[in-house]
Amino acid sequence: LLLSSNAFVPTHIQSPIKTRTQSKISTRVGRSRIEQRLFLTPDALSLDVTTLPTHLFTLSTLPTHLSASLPTPVLSAFAAYFHYLGLFLVVASLITERLLIKPDMNESDFDTAANADILYGISGTVVLVSGYFRATEFGKGWEFYAHEPIFWVKMLLFSVMGAASFFPTTKIIQRAITKKNAQDAGEELPNPWSPALIKRLTSIINAELLAVSSIPLAATLMSRGVGYAENFPWYAGAAPSFLVVGGLGYKYIKEALDWKEPNQ
User: Fold this and answer.
1) Which of 112, 133, 205, 229 is the least buried, fewest Cβ under 10 Å from its Cβ?
2) Is the Cα dihedral 6, 7, 9, 10 positive or negative?
3) DSSP-based three-state secondary structure for 134
4) 234 Cβ partners below 8 Å, 6+ apart?
5) What is the rounded distance in angstroms from the CA atom of residue 184 to the CA atom of residue 178?
């Protein structure tokens, strides 16, 4: 009882007692605050860890109502694989054509360019088909892509690339047929393409390369939900692609068929 009052405790003893007491109180208060903040409060203990994926999803730019069940992993992986492989082969085919189509190209170069153009067509079809399944069956689902304007920008770039290819493909087919007929008849091979036609072909292939090189940028923005608008009508995005394929496709095919070489 006497020690309960500092009046009966010598001065040289009061200081250590007070210091130790304050230290213990401070430690308990500190631990209590840390426990409340970290893990011992009822609010903290009531957190259901199973809800974390949902909370994390809401932090992204994607609409929460678009979270659907995961697709079959193997099928989704194969669709993605063929999509990327097709795009890689499209780029490789275009680069091959661009390097081989030149004023001094020989018949071997032409045959290789013709084969590259065939591979280009097949690869483009693979990209289109695999992309269809990725958009409708896998990935984020059609409800997301239909209202994503950048997805339609990506489709527009693909349409420009495809429509522009009609001119080189038409000219390659024309010359391949003429060459085959001349070989079968034992006649001279057709004359090489004129510098004007070579210039036109290379300019179109350059445009195709520019379009296809822009597709990955559009894809990365699209996959992150940039520009997503739930009220964006899908037909407003699809219409330009159809117009480009129809309009530019007709233009380039007609230009190729009407093209007259100086030596013809």
Assistant:
1) 229
2) positive
3) helix
4) 146, 147, 152
5) 10
Interatomic CA distance for residues 62 and 243, integer angstroms? 29
Q: Is the pLDDT of residue 9 over 50?
A: no
Measured CA distances, 245 to 78, 96, 166 (Å): 28, 24, 10
Burial, 39: exposed, middle or buried (Cβ in 10 Å; 0-12, 13-18, 19+)? exposed
Q: How many CB atoms lie within 10 A of CB 225?
A: 16
Q: Is 135 helix (H, G, I), strand (E, B) or coil?
A: helix
CA angle centred on 155, ends 149 and 159, rounded to 5°: 140
Model pLDDT for residues 140-160, shown as the tens digit of each residue: 888 899 999 999 999 999 999
Round to whole Å and give the CA distance between 154 and 221: 10
> pLDDT-based confidence at 243, cuts 50/70/90?
very high
Structure tokens at 254: 């007609």
Cα gap 155→141, rounded to integer Å: 16
Angle at 86 between CA 212 and CA 126, to 5 degrees: 110
Please report the pLDDT score of residue 191 as a whole number. Answer: 87
Q: What is the dihedral of CA 98, 100, 105, 106, to 10 degrees?
A: -150
Q: Is 203 exposed, middle or buried (0-12, 13-18, 19+ CB in 10 A)?
A: exposed
- C-alpha–C-alpha distance, residues 255 and 83, integer Å: 31
Q: Which pLDDT score, from 0 to 100, does residue 33 have?
A: 44
Q: What is the rounded CA–CA span in Å between residue 55 and residue 80? A: 27
Query: Do residues 156 and 248 make contact, with C-beta atoms less than 8 angstroms apart?
Result: no
